[in-house]
Specification:
single chain; mainly beta; two-stranded antiparallel sheet; 2 helices; 10% helix; 33% strand; globular
Length: 113
């Protein structure tokens, strides 16, 4: 078995307005930069950063798939920010749903074979 790591671009993502490139990859944004700059409240800014509803779409003949993400959780957010949930759909049908426990400085992974 060999793994192919494609360069993920905005072309693969749905439910976003733009992406910000970072040293760790892409950060999907649901609001444009000019709108985010107008939010004065730090709590509201963190809420806007949530990537809820962002989808990765692709077509492949692969029999195995691994998605590596980096979700962050601020200790101040504990009571209201849930752990990330990843849904895997194939041909429009929900195949698996995984909850990822966040660990500091470690990427979250969803694997399916």
């Amino acid at each position: 078995m060999s793994w192919i790591t494609p360069g993920i671009t905005e072309d693969f993502l749905r439910g976003i307005v733009e992406c910000e490139p970072t040293t760790a990859g892409l950060t999907p944004q649901r609001l444009p930069a000019w709108a985010r700059a107008q939010i004065p409240d730090p709590q509201a800014q963190r809420t806007v950063q949530l990537s809820s509803g962002v989808r990765v779409t692709l077509s492949t003949r692969a029999t195995r798939l691994q998605l590596v993400t980096r979700a962050e959780k601020n200790p101040a957010d504990e009571p209201w920010k849930p752990e990330p949930v990843y849904d895997v759909y194939i041909d429009g049908e929900l195949l698996i749903q995984r909850v990822s426990e966040l660990q500091p400085d470690l990427p979250a992974m969803v694997r399916h074979s």
